[in-house]
Every structure is written in structure tokens, then in C-alpha cells.
Specification:
The chain is of the alpha/beta class. It contains eleven helices and eleven strands. Strands 1, 2, 3, 4, 5, 6, 8, 10 and 11 form a nine-stranded mixed sheet that branches. Strands 7-9 form a two-stranded antiparallel sheet. Helix 1 links the parallel strand 1 and strand 2. Helix 9 crosses helix 10, helix 9 packs across helix 11 and helix 10 packs antiparallel against helix 11.
């Protein structure tokens, strides 16, 4: 039987040292697995390309390429997927790994073995934890009108009533099918990508994995959370999300595009209205009960203005700041 081939892709944006560390960890876990690793510099323009290229000089099975422009997470990974293996062929599997993620022992092989033994699985992802062992939520349900209201209202009785619509899933204790997984450590069957297409590059950042997993599901290819695969993830190093004081416009663009593309304009507007109504209720409760702020500054007004602009057909603004 022919040995399956794997292409690992690490997307770099202004994190050259961490990217090299991630590549070292991935190569260690690829030992004995046929395949290669591509580091894609997503037009960092900070010397990352040169620094990474120098650091990996002499490494076997590693290439460093430049995206040419920063089109976001999905577009950058698409550059690596389209590059394929160095002999011009396509791999059997594509594995995307964040530049701030480090596969634990056996992590990549566990995903590969699951894909090989479960030919009906389209995508497979890992259990993700922080450097201190804290669990990161990376398994989710698809967003909906109900989930938009539940997430913004922040009210226990509503959450219990709509528990089947809550987007973040509780920590899966065993390997199981989920709606979608975050792309910090995600293995994809190349034949599925050939069938459904690559990441939708309209998404600059956020919702691109949601959309891709949904397209795979609709084509009959489920996404599976593989509990035996464990990856250490620092999180938000390239995006700076943990330090955001205000949501960037590309998040609103991606959210609106997801709902509009997958459910239509009317559904997108109803989902936004549900989020706004829940947000207003939460803010009234905050005022009365003196609860701490939970959203970035001006979130609800930014969401409202963006929705009105989208309804009027305004073009998305500049989303080039950050990856």
C-alpha cells in the first residue's frame, strides 16, 4: 500500500522566531511521515522572509515562500496549498498549523491515522491547550440567529433555553464529529479541497474555517475533533486579538459575509438584529447590576453601523492591517 503524503503549512505574519520554533516542532512530529513543510510569509515586510529563510537553510523537506500580498489567513494558506509538493504533485493531506502552535508528541500522526482509518472524514483537528495546560475552546457549532442572541444577551435562562445553539462546545472528552474547528491545527483531505474548493478569500480573518467546514459538511464530509492529538498554542500572537480595545472592521466584514453567503441577506440582517437586541438587554443589566464591560469599546454601535452600511451596499474598507 502506498504511503500517504502530507503537506504541512505554517503561515507567518511578523512572528519569524516563533514560526521557526513551530516548524521545528512540526518537523519533529513529521518524522517517519512522507511529505514536506511549507512556510508562507504573508507579506510581513519586516524582514521575516529573510530571517526565516536563513534559519531553515539546510533543513530537509522545508520550503519558504512569499505570498506576494497579505490577503488574510485563508488566502495565505491557499498560497501554500496551491504550491503543493516540491515535485509538483498534490499531497494526500494538507495540515495547517498556526505559527504560534507546537504539536505535542504524536499529534500529527494521530490526525493522519484518524484520516487514514476513517475515509469518510473530511477534516480533523486537535485538542488545543495553552503553555500552562489550560484548555482552549476550538470546537464549535455553526452560528445562527439563535446563537447571535444567546451570545450577546449573556443571560443564564436564555443560554439554558438555547443550549443547542450555543456556538462554543464544551470540552470534548472523546474523539467526535463537530460542526467546525479553529484552524490552529487542522488536517484536511486534499481530495475534499479539490471537490469543494479552498478557503474563501473574501474572509480576511475569522469565519473562514467556519465556512470551509460547512462547505465540506454539505458535500458529505464531516469534521472530527481528534482528542488523541494534542497541540500547545499560545494564541493571538499574529492578530493581537487579546489586546484589542475595539473590534477591527474585518471581523464585521467576515461575520456579515458568512451569514450572507450561507443563509442570504434576510437571515444576515435578522441575525444582526438578534445580536443587537441581546446586546441592548445586556447593557441595561450591566447598568443596573454594575457588571463589568465584556465587549470591546463601541462594539454594539460599530456592529449596527456596519450592518446599515452592508444593507446600503457599501464596499468593505481597508482590512490590510494585521493578519
Amino acid at each position: 500500500m502506498r504511503e500517504p503524503t502530507l503537506l504541512t503549512i505554517i503561515l507567518n505574519y511578523k512572528t519569524p522566531d516563533m514560526t521557526v520554533q513551530s516548524a521545528e516542532a512540526a518537523l519533529r512530529e513529521m518524522d517517519g511521515i512522507a511529505g514536506e513543510l511549507i512556510i508562507v510569509d504573508n507579506d510581513s515586510q519586516d524582514g521575516s522572509l529573510e530571517k526565516i529563510s536563513k534559519a531553515v537553510t539546510g533543513w530537509d523537506r522545508v520550503r519558504v515562500i512569499q505570498s506576494g500580498h497579505n490577503g488574510g489567513f485563508g488566502a495565505g494558506n491557499n498560497v501554500g496549498i496551491r504550491a503543493g509538493l516540491s515535485d509538483g504533485s498534490k499531497p494526500d493531506y494538507v495540515y495547517i498549523l498556526n505559527s504560534d502552535a507546537f504539536p505535542d508528541k504524536g499529534a500529527i500522526r494521530a490526525l493522519l491515522q484518524h484520516m487514514e482509518s476513517h475515509p469518510e472524514t473530511g477534516f480533523a483537528g486537535s485538542y488545543i491547550h495553552g503553555p500552562d495546560g489550560d484548555w482552549h475552546c476550538t470546537a464549535f457549532r455553526y452560528p445562527s440567529i439563535a446563537s447571535e442572541f444567546e451570545s450577546s444577551v449573556r443571560f443564564g435562562p436564555v443560554t439554558r433555553l438555547l443550549k443547542g445553539s450555543v456556538v462554543p462546545l464544551p470540552l470534548p472528552r472523546t474523539t467526535q464529529t463537530v460542526d467546525w474547528l479553529a484552524g490552529a491545527s487542522l488536517m484536511m483531505r486534499q481530495s475534499v479541497l479539490d471537490e469543494i474548493g479552498l478557503f474563501d478569500e473574501t474572509f480576511f480573518l475569522y469565519f473562514e474555517e467556519t465556512d470551509l467546514c460547512r462547505r465540506a459538511m454539505l458535500a458529505g464530509w464531516p469534521t472530527v475533533y481528534v482528542r488523541e492529538s494534542s497541540v500547545t498554542h499560545i494564541g493571538s500572537v499574529s492578530t493581537g486579538m487579546k489586546s484589542w480595545s475595539r473590534m477591527p472592521k474585518y471581523w464585521f466584514d467576515s461575520r456579515l459575509h458568512y451569514f450572507r453567503k450561507n443563509h442570504g441577506w434576510l437571515y444576515a440582517m435578522l441575525a444582526t438584529i438578534a445580536h443587537i437586541k441581546g446586546g441592548v438587554f445586556w447593557r441595561l443589566r450591566r447598568l443596573i447590576q454594575r457588571k463589568p464591560q465584556r465587549d470591546p469599546d463601541n462594539f454594539l454601535s460599530d456592529l449596527t453601523r456596519h450592518a446599515v452600511g452592508g444593507l446600503l451596499g457599501r464596499a468593505p474598507g481597508d482590512v490590510s492591517k494585521g493578519m
